[in-house]
Write a structure and sequence with these properties.
Length: 294
């Protein structure tokens, strides 16, 4: 069977496990990641700055066979992210809304100490990463933690950042933590055409970057504003105001409508902001306004 650039990495590896070895040699070190293996061979070449045709030629030249033990050892462990040294990994347990109990903090500290982690890092996604772990001990580290991995990579809802809102912050105008927990439970890890980040702020200070993420919610004295299409990166984009002064029970139906529209209309790996640039905001506004009026 001849592989093509449009085939997903997981399908190539399933058809001929021995292809993992040549892909690793060319720099694809994330072949154990459940998110990256859903990318196409072309996506992988672009992400790793490889010549797509040379990568395709190399994969097609591999004889049929099983993956070697050395290749298995190099494959990225589940729920882990390869670090700069290309040898160790970081894991980031999921902490919904960034609210951690003393028990969670003790677990993370105990695991980091037990497995000689290089560092413990608070991430921008309100998680606590354990950095610098050897690949062979990562399954044991996850077992000791007893926590789910945070979705830090892949074409899905990556993070739901939530500010303290009226629960703790003196500037809060609307409740955020309960809503944030509900949104995190409903959407975190949801598969989408491209990565997707959500930020929920309880006041116009927007401490969770609600205008700079794919979907942002901002509390006002009258309700919640919803923004769509923000992103950082090399081509940053400010979010567009979608709807104003929604009530808390309207947020999930509106977000559902945004997700459905995004799934139906976006190209592969097209962020929602680029989709809006391409087709305009009007149809998305109509779809979400219809939900509010229903």
């Amino acid at each position: 069977m001849k592989f093509t650039l449009e085939m997903k990495l997981k399908d190539i590896m399933a058809t001929n496990p021995k292809t993992v070895e040549v892909m690793q040699e060319l720099g694809l070190h994330c072949l154990g990641c459940p998110f990256s293996v859903n990318e196409t061979l072309l996506n992988a070449a672009q992400m790793h700055k490889l010549d797509p045709e040379k990568l395709l030629e190399a994969v097609n030249s591999v004889e049929q066979g099983e993956m070697s033990e050395a290749a298995k050892a190099k494959a990225q462990p589940k729920g882990a992210i390869l670090q700069m040294d290309k040898k160790t990994y970081a894991i980031a347990p999921h902490i919904p809304a960034g609210v951690a109990t003393p028990e969670i903090l003790r677990k993370i500290a105990d695991v980091a100490e037990k497995y000689n982690a290089a560092a413990i890092k608070v991430t921008s996604a309100q998680r606590i990463a354990i950095v610098g772990l050897a690949p062979e001990i990562i399954p044991n580290a996850w077992e000791d933690l007893g926590m789910d991995p945070g979705h830090a990579v892949g074409l899905c809802v990556r993070s739901v950042k939530v500010c303290p809102g009226i629960t703790f912050c003196k500037r809060g105008l609307q409740e955020t933590l309960g809503i944030g927990m509900e949104i995190d439970k409903r959407y975190h890890g949801m598969s989408l055409p491209a990565k997707f980040k959500i930020g929920i702020a309880g006041c116009p200070n927007k401490c969770t970057d609600s205008m700079n993420v794919d979907l942002g919610i901002m509390g006002t004295s009258k309700g919640y504003h919803v923004y769509v299409g923000g992103n950082g990166g090399v081509k940053p984009r400010r979010g567009d105001l979608l709807l104003e002064n929604l009530q808390s029970d309207q947020l999930v139906p509106v977000i559902d409508a945004v997700m459905d529209y995004f799934k139906e209309n976006a190209k592969p790996q097209e962020r929602i902001g680029r989709l809006i640039d391409r087709v305009g905001l009007e149809e998305l506004q109509k779809a979400t306004q219809n939900v509010v009026n229903a």
